[in-house]
Design goal:
The chain is mostly helical. The protein contains twelve helices and two strands. Helix 2 packs across helix 4 (78-90).
Length: 322
Amino acid sequence: MAVSQLNAPLCASPPVPTVGIRHINLPHNDRFVVVGNHLAQHDRLSLTAIGLSVHIQSLRSGTRISVKKLADRFPEGEDRISDALNELERYGYLRRTRVRLPSGRLITTTESFNNPPAMRIRVPGQAVPVTAPVREAPPPAVEPPVPDPVVGPEPVPLPQQPCPRPRPATAHPTPTPARPVPATLLADLRRHDPRLLLSERDIGRLAPAVDVWLERGVAPDAVRRTLTAALPAGELHRPAGLLRHRLTELLPPPLPAAPHAPPGPVPDVRRLRPRVPRARAGAVQRLRAGRRPRGVVTAGDALMLGRTMEGADVHNVGRSST
């Protein structure tokens, strides 16, 4: 009989679960979105901002998103969603721009970036630089041999005339283009409060809202006082968000149309008729009755009688007087 081997290897033990999470991954064939670890493991974004960014990246292009629509979709409130959108905008995952339509209406365009560290965000309207292909330099051209110069008689030197000295060109300073009033007003806020230091990007977003205030008849000094009055004490973490809130919530209504002045009273024409002297009132009555007035009527009397009587003919009065 064969001797039994007691040193045979034992059966493999089942896998022992390690400490921490275990991933059970299955491939996705449809309805999925690719998210980078730079977003999923961001060390400064809040969990609400990370989840909101994933939700926005999963939406189709053209889907309308706003604070109210997202608050209706998720249990978080409008304030929490607004703070999450501001976080994504600060770290380059979101960009919101106020655009004025030809009709005068202001709309907000939203752009989502899935990989800000690797994507260069270019300014709208700026062309993408194209690198031209490197071409090999052509071989140097062989110069033909130059013949030796023919030695001839030396030329007679002519008297040199003094050349006019060129006048130095007057350097005209390049005029600096003037900034629009809304942008100037926003950039000047840091002089009144150093905490209201805004970037060029924030000024470009807030300028359309300031323009609406100016179009409604509000003076620039009044807009400045509204933005700088009663600021909270301490450091302002998001001055642009504070100014956007004030420009939106404290927007005054448009000025009503100026009332038209009521028309004045119509004068009574009957009171403007001239009074006829008593001495000539009888003559007027005799002319109306067809009788000839007493005495001789002069041309001045006839003219006065013609103005005071209705329908009297001056020429007939002149004929009757002669």
